[in-house]
Amino acid sequence: MATAHGITRDEEIYDYLFKVVMIGDSGVGKSNLLMRYTKGDFNIESKTTIGVEFATKTVTTQDKKVVKAQIWDTAGQERGAVGALLVYDVTSAQSFKHVADWLKELKQYADNNIVILLVGNKTDLRDRREVKKEDAAAYADQHQLAFIETSALDCSNVDLAFDRIINEIYKVVSHSAVGAGDDEDDNVLAKKGGSSAESTAATGKGPLTGGKKSGMKLKEEGKSGGDVKKKKTKCC
């Protein structure tokens, strides 16, 4: 099966496999964010996702580590995830109100050390905005979440959002691996592989259990995303 870059899984070599989930109300644009990041596409007639949907993207860190991100656009896949994008629609106060419920569910089922990025999507709809950027930023600060606003339609900050969370996960996981020496837990990272690594990402065990809290404050949006380099999508 081909990945986002057209490389078959059997041919692909990577150092780390990260399971990342996208959660939030229906209609906030999760599927289009995922499609924009992994394929450079946008579907104006996108409908509610039914069933399980995921895509993969491979990036290379500044220290030449290859990271494969397996990104799930569906609720109920929180277990085993090392990162989450909690998405709301800036034109829907209701979707922002429900962020608290999604966060509660995430913390109930995901690992304590999961990296969470709060994402306000659809910033292109400026005249329909209902959620102020400063209110969302204050909420993120209160709950120790990273925060960014995006537009899947015009591609604003889409790559930056995903790259930032992948970069932060890499920092946490690589730090944990250094602390553990050569005895790396298979549930912490997946090394050099295809099918065996795929099954590791799908395990129900906490990938970062035993790791230290990182105080996960990411850089302000618009600044450098850090240590992740990537292939550009069609729009950016």
Automatic annotation (TrEMBL):
Keyword set, alphabetical order: GTP-binding, Lipoprotein, Membrane, Nucleotide-binding, Prenylation
Coiled-coil region: none
GO CC annotation, single: membrane
Source species taxonomy: Eukaryota, Sar, Alveolata, Ciliophora, Intramacronucleata
Compartmental location: Membrane
Similarity-based family: Belongs to the small GTPase superfamily. Rab family.
PROSITE patterns: RAB, RAS
Region of interest (Disordered), residue spans: 188-236
Identification of the protein by name: Uncharacterized protein
Membrane topology of this protein: Lipid-anchor
Example GO molecular function: GTP binding
InterPro entries associated with the record: P-loop_NTPase (IPR027417), Rab_GTPases_membrane_traffic (IPR050209), Small_GTP-bd (IPR005225), Small_GTPase (IPR001806)
